[in-house]
Amino acid sequence: MVLLGGYKVIMADDLSTGVDRSPINTLERRNSLEKHLQTRPEPQDLKDRHILLDTNAAPALQAAQQELERQKATDSLKKQLEKRPDRDELVERQASHRYEKELEKHMRADSLEHKLQNRPKPEELVKEGILEPDENPLKE
């Protein structure tokens, strides 16, 4: 497009590319730039959205730093997977855990039974001053 005598003349070259090559008014360009700068997101917002890297490294080193972090995470995960118990060991742990719970249950039942058998008689409680002579805990 060319300006001839105050008129815009569109060249065939401009039609084929579909690009408007007319000069933008300086005021419009400045207003557009100011508008975009006012709505520009804060750096912390960009970091929160993972658009900017949250790092103090030089921009030339940021990609290498990010790759290093990913490798560290990969290595850590591999180590944890190597330490992970196999299926048979997990089944054995579950079985032993079940037996442990069952044993605890039986031990509590035995302890309760023992305490009930050795419970003091009402006469002993009256003698020790815990019960009044006219109180009988066996009556309902």
From TrEMBL:
A GO-annotated cellular component: nucleus
UniProt-recorded Gene Ontology molecular function terms: transcription coactivator activity
PROSITE patterns xref list: RPEL
Region: Disordered, residue numbers: 63-140
The entry's keywords: Nucleus, Repeat
Gene3D superfamilies assigned: 6.10.140.2040, 6.10.150.10
Domain of life: Eukaryota
RPEL repeats (start-end): 31-56, 110-135
One Pfam family it belongs to: RPEL
Signal peptide: none
Name by which UniProt lists this protein: Putative rpel repeat protein
